[in-house]
């Protein structure tokens, strides 16, 4: 029997499963934030990135978010990723 003929049912199931996941993910949305004048920006993103580990532990015991919502967008994201990377790299370097 041809190898493609044997794999075809698996490929069809995989494509169908991916289609269902994409269809369900397309329905997800964030709630509209209220109109704020002072949204968290780069510096708060950097701080939240540094505190990612402690926020994660706090979120296990209380209603604490590890990511600010609403935020100012890409600058907050950049600061968050930069702060998390610096924190996690320092943790990795100290374990050596």
Number of DSSP E strands: 0
Helix content: 55-70%
Assembly classification? single chain
Structure annotation, total helices: 4
User: What class would the helix/strand composition place it in?
Assistant: mainly alpha
What's the shape? extended
The description of the largest β-sheet is: none
> How much strand content do the residues show?
under 5%
Number of domains: 1
Give start-end ranges of low-pLDDT stretches. Answer: none
Order of helices and strands: HHHH
What's the Cα radius of gyration? 21 Å
Give the N-terminus to C-terminus distance in angstroms: 53 Å
Mean pLDDT level? 83
What can you tell me about this protein's structure?
The chain has 96 residues and is mainly α. It has one domain. Helix content is 66%, strand content 0%. The protein contains four helices and no strands. Helix 2 (42-50) packs parallel to helix 4. The longest helix has 23 residues, at 3-25. The radius of gyration is 21 Å and the shape is extended.
